[in-house]
Structure formats: C-alpha cells, structure tokens
Amino acid sequence: MWEHRDIQLLNVPSAASSSGCAASVVAVEPSEQTPLHRVHCAGSVLAIAVSARHIYAGTQSGDIAVFSIETYDHITDLKGHSRCILSLVLSDDESLLLSSAGDAIVNVWSADTFERVHTIYSVFDVGDIFCVAYSSKLSTVYFGAQNTSIQWYDFRAKDKYPRPSIKSHPSKRSHRFFDSLGPGGSATPQPPSEQPGLSYNESDLIEIDPSSIVQYAHFGYVYCMLLIESSTREGEEVLVSGGGDGSIKLWEIDSTTSAIHPKESKSLSSGDCGVLCMATRAQFLYCGLTDGEISIWDLDSQTLIRSIRGHQDDVHTMTARDNFIWSGSASGHVRKWSQRFELLGRWKAHEGIILSSAIRTVKGKDIYLSGGNDDCVAAWDVSSQEDDTPSVHRTTEDEMHSALRTLVSFRTVANDPTFSEDCRQGASFLKSIFRQFGAQSFLIPTAENRNPIVFAKFTPPESTVETARQTILFYGHYDVISAGAEPDNNWITEPFELTGMNSYLYGRGVSDNKGPVLAAIFAAGELAQRNELTSNIVFLIEGEEEAGSRGFKDAVKRCKDFIGPIDWILLANSYWLDDDAPCVTYGLRGVVHASVEIESDKPDLHSGVDGSRESREPVIDMVNLLAKLTSDRGKVMIPGFHEPVRPVTPAEEAMYTAITKEFSERTFNSIVPLGQLQAHLMSRWRYPSLTIHRVNVSGPTNATVIPRSASAAISVRIVPDQKLSAVCDSLTEYLYSEFSNFNSPNRLRVSIDHASEWWLGDPENKAFRTLAKAVEEVWQKKPLFIREGGSIPAVRFLELEFGAAAAHLPCGQASDHAHLDNERIRVANLYKSKSIMKKVFQELPLDG
Ligand code: BES
Ligand code: MN
C-alpha cells in the first residue's frame, strides 16, 4: 500500500523546490530488508558514531551506549551528560569521541579507555548543543547551539587560558527562571546532583573564551555542522553549518587561531525549510530539510543543483559513501539514492522516527547504522553489489552469518515428513558450502524416509604435511526440533528467519546444532583456503539426531572403509553451565525411550452404564503401573538399577570443587545456593533419572467415557557404568512382572523405541588438553570441565567404531533455549567457537 503511494508522491515536483526537480525511480532494491542486527538502548537514539571497533549510540537519557561492531555485545555506557545526546563525532584517528547534549555541554572521551577527558562549556546560556565538528588537523572542537552561536576550542592553545572553576559549569550556574528567588526571597531547594559520572574533575573542565564565539551564526538554531576540504586553499578545511533558518553557511578557518570567518557570499539559502542534517561527498553537499525536502549543492560553484521531495516528512539524517547517499526520515524509512539522486531503494528501518545514522566500512563490509525513537540501533549491510569481487572483501564471519541465515531458513525438522524436502535442501546446502571450500562432499543416504548424512573431507595438499597424516572427525547434526505451531508457541521472532538482536542470533537450531556446525565448517574451510591444514578433517553431519539418530550407525558402517581411519572425534552440541564461564564437556548421559500400552478387549464404554467395582480400567492400570517405577520421593525402583552407578573418585570430586570455586567468586548468577551446587550438578550429570513424558487415553476424553486403552512414553537417562542393554531388559521385565501382580484382564505392551549409550571422555587426553588450551587462548579464561545430562546417540558409537576418543566443545550458553521457544546463540560465542575449532584442527594432530 504505502509503496504505491510513495512512488506517486515522489513523482510530484515539490512546491517548495527551487529547481522543481522530482526524484526519479530507477531499478529499486526490495523494500523489505533484514538488518544484520538490532540492539536496544535505554531510550531514543538521537546520535550515532561508528569506529572500526565500536558503535556509539547517544540516547535520550544522556548516556552513550557502546557496542562492539563485530559481535554487537554491549560494552559499556558512557555517563557524562544529564540530558539527551544530540550529536556524536570521532576524531580522524578514532581515538577521541566528542558528544554534545541538551545539557549545554560538549564532552570529549577517550575511545580507548572510555574515560571522559574533557568537559567543554560556554559561559553563555547556549541551550541545547545540536552539533559538533572536530578538526583533527587543528585539534579544535566546533559546536553549534540553540542560541544560534557557533563556538570553538583549540586544544593547541589550552595553556593560553586560565583553568576554569567548577562553579561556572552550566549545571552549577543559577538559571534565570528556575533558580530565581520566589516569594519571601527563597529559591526552590534542589537535590544535590548525585548521578554517577556527573561529578567533575576541575582539571578536565574547559571554558570557551569569549573571543571564540560567533553569536547569531544563523537566524535560527544551529542544527548541523561538518568540516570539508577547502576547494580554494589547498589542505585547509571549511566549516559548513546548517540552521533552522533554512540557510547553509560556509566558514573559512584561520589555521593558526582556529577562528572562523563568515563570508556573506557563501551563505546558501534553502528557502523556508530548516536544515536538519547534512552529508558531503566530493564537492557535493546533501541537505535534509523539514517537510521531506532534500537539496543538493555544488560547493565549488556554490549553486543549488537540485531540490527534490525525498520523503513525506522531515528528513532527519543524511549519510554519504562512495556513490550512494542514504536519507532517513520521521516515518522510519531509509532511502538510498544514486549520485544523480535516482531512488535506488527504500526500506522501513524503524518502528517510529529515524533520528540518527552513520556509515563505516568494517572489514570490507559497508555497515549503515540507523537509530530511532523505537529505542534501537539497526545495523544494515549496504555493501555495493556492483563490486566485481564481493566475496574477496567479506570476512569468514560475514560468510558464516549469511550461511547460517540460509541454513536456518530450511525447516529441517526430522520427525515430520512434511519437512523432508527442507531436510534434503538443507543437506544439499551444506554440501555446496563444503564444495566451495574445496572439500570433497556428498550425501550418504540412511534409510528409507530418513534424512541423509552430509559427508565431507578436507585434505591438505601433499606438500604441506610431512609427517604421517592424522584425521579428525567432526560430528554434528542439521536437523532441528519443531518450532511449535502458532498460536501456542511464544517466539518473539520468526523461528526460521535468522534475527540478530541485542548481540544474539535467534532462530530454531542456531545453537542446536546449526551454528556450531557452521563454525566447524568455516574453521576447516578457512584453514584449507590459507593452506594451513595440518590433517585431514572429515565431517559427518546427520539429519536424524533429534529423532535418535535413526539409520546413522548402519550408514556409517556401510561407508566405514570410505571414511577411512579416524584419530580424534570432535563435536560441539551442548551448552555452558551458565552464561559467563567457558566450558569443555567430557561426559553425556545415555537415554532409553520406551512406550507402555495397556488395552482391554472391550470398546470405549459409558462410565455411568459400565463403570463398576468389577471393571478393570486400562487407565487405572496404567497409573498404578507407572507408580511402581519410582518411590513416593522419586527414586527409580527398577531392581538393580542403581548398583552399577560408578562411585565418585577424588579426581572427579576435584572437578566439582573447581566449579564451586568459580561460582563462589561470583556475586550473582549462581544456579543454586553454593552449598547445594555439587549435589545439584552430580544429580544431573552422573546419576540416572527417569521421566514420564506423556500419558494418552483412547476415546473422546470427556468425563463420561471409560477409555479402552492407555499409552505412556517414558525415558530413562543412564550413566557410567550402567549397561544399556541391561537397563532396557530390567525396565521391560520390571513393568511386566509388576503388571502380572495386578491380575488384570487387560493387555500390557512395552517397547523400547530408542536406546543410546552414555559417553565419558578422558579429560586428560590430548584432545581435551588441546581443546582447553584453545578455549583459554580465545576466551582469555580457563574453561570449566563439565558433564551434561543430555544425550547424543552417535558419540559412543563413533568412538567404538573408529577406535578414536571424542572431545566436546560446548558453544552455546545456558540461556540459549535449545529445544524451546526463542532459541538463540550469542554472536561472540559463534565467532569464538570458530576460532577455537580452528586452533584445535590445527594443533591436535601435532606432536606434544
Ligand atoms: N544437543 C542435544 C544434547 C544435549 C542436551 C547436550 C542437553 C547437552 C545438554 C541433542 O541435540 C539432543 O537433543 N539430544 C537428545 C537425544 C535424543 C533425541 C536421543 C536428548 O538429549 O534428549
Ligand atoms: Mn537437540
């Protein structure tokens, strides 16, 4: 709807435009765009600056939120303004950040230490400071304010001026209105200002000298400002300012004193609309005005080239890079323009008003950032598609991110035949990634109606490896648990659309196990591309893990010769103990899934007609039978069940002590009270458990019918040294023998649907040593050695089949919500897991 209206509007020449030009529409990029990421801030985002490492978001609260440009992690909040931030700029070398705000102050921050190094203010009541510009060459700060002045401070001359006193700081001065004396001669009492970060060190204060002020620089607020290269005086800069009066002024700068001199001939008028924002590229100046107007000036000839109606509402931000210009407006839309101001694209970037934007090329990718009154910053990849060799510039992180986006979009739910085509496409997609990295790859069929295994092998070229070559096998899975059907699920994003939010990527399977699988593939792929592989790396990525790895064993056995000998097994399919401490996992429980069915030879009956003290109802039998499985306190009652459980050794105890110690150093976030932690973890990791998943009954389930049959699904998690087959047998036998004591005419059927072995690795072997070292190098923290209560059927099988030991790297955090709504993985965990696996792939085969 809006699209249609938009184009119409665009083609109507603006009444206010002096040249009468309308924007023309050429091939327009899609209006739907997915941001790379969105981060939430504490309030509207009125200003953005971006460096090679950080995104700075100036908010309404006066805080500047700092995020990592790579992982979007929230790093810190710079607290030094008591009112909304209005402008942020960086010095050329990105070592200084300058902020201006509604509190009449300009702060200068170190972009390395995040310390506030200076606070600059004027002795005049300047009101809001809307804009700042910084000349790195002259070490001079210029700012434009609500009282229509432009003021500056030259750091080169800082010894010339006496040190000001805190008393003259705007927050300490009395306000003509609010602080005037009331009846009786007393002023309204003010609470002391105790806001953190708002206390001042006198030595950091800078007061503007009255000689460094141009009063009435505009006949209106000074909204925006920037420095450009002078076209007449080589190597010198010109200050450009835009005002609420609709004029744009050029100011020549005296390079010795930093003073600015207006040149009346260089005042460009835009008409009635206020100039809200500006951007330059080459000799062109692009101005965003109130009422949707965009004017383009040639600064060399100082003429207005075009004026178009770019938006339907106020143009709040303007950004230029290479051959493109982006404008953002009050309706929340961003528009992308060519140099000739043809509309190239438009998209809705914010639910609300766009207030700020910035652009920067980071590791070969052009990132456009927009900030809005929906309290968020959105990051958009606007890298030019016209680039001849786009992939050369993209980092493996970018490639991995877009591969994950595609992989998540395949609904690879193993248990549901509706999705078998998605599974096949997901598998083919993985195969194509392997092949792009130069690995040999194909699909291994499993069983009929079962999903294939993706096989791949990276082989280093003969010349690069002298010693007998080892082989590492990476195991993972591309199938996922169902995301649930609406409206019963509570996903805050589309489960099969990768969504970046607040430093996490959301989507079904991102943590279990698609993200970690891609991290491993890209780790191996990157080594292969750089000729740094030291061993063969084989991948077996199956599509039936969540369904108990159906068909996996047979398929692997069939292909065993082809797969060849394996020295080490690596997997990455579990989570940290909490959200902060990196871990390595050396144990998993096994699992037995069983179905229990009890049926009578009668049909469903009416409970009023047929309910009697003589009838033996299947559901009552079921309830009584299930009750035999555990004591009233939940202890599993299967005979001989607990005896084989391995006793705790001192070495094992030490592992738990280390974990308890780690948590005792925390002041928050402990999972349970410290005194209970060891028992809590042991009961989940090294002791068995039993779960009743569901009990179903036949018939209409209303309160008048006796169901003719009942069924139940139960599972048992098993641990060292319980024997899988013994548990299956004793569970079945126990149920039959207890049931026979009931003397019921009903029939019982017990079946074992799935059984998988527990796994216990050797935390002292070379694989774990290499893994732990790599984790420590990448996270700068020694990992905790943990076990897990969950199960992965293939691990023990692969160890036995290939006679190789497995090591397990948990990539995700405890709060990843695997199998649940809103599954996610932190961007930093994904990228760092790739780095860890790269190190392991490289170092594990080496001697030592
Ligand atoms: N990644 C999990 C295994 C897991 C779960 C590890 C919890 C650590 C903690 C795996 O994908 C999974 O869901 N396994 C199933 C296996 C079952 C379907 C045979 C499980 O544990 O229930
Ligand atoms: Mn799982």
TrEMBL record:
Residues 179-200 are annotated as: Disordered. Gene3D superfamilies: 3.30.70.360, YVTN repeat-like/Quinoprotein amine dehydrogenase, Zn peptidases. The keyword Amino-acid biosynthesis does not apply. WD repeats lie at residues 78-119, 239-261. GO terms for biological process: glutathione catabolic process; proteolysis. Keywords: Hydrolase, Metal-binding, Protease, Repeat, WD repeat. Residues 618-739 form the Peptidase M20 dimerisation domain. InterPro entries: Cyt/Met_Dipeptidase, GSH_degradosome_Dug2, Peptidase_M20, Peptidase_M20_dimer, WD40/YVTN_repeat-like_dom_sf, WD40_repeat_CS, WD40_repeat_dom_sf, WD40_rpt. It holds the Pfam family M20_dimer. GO terms for molecular function: glutathione hydrolase activity; identical protein binding; metal ion binding. GO terms for cellular component: cytoplasm; glutathione hydrolase complex; nuclear periphery. It comes from the Eukaryota. Belongs to the peptidase M20A family. This is Peptidase M20 dimerisation domain-containing protein. It comes from Drechslerella stenobrocha 248.
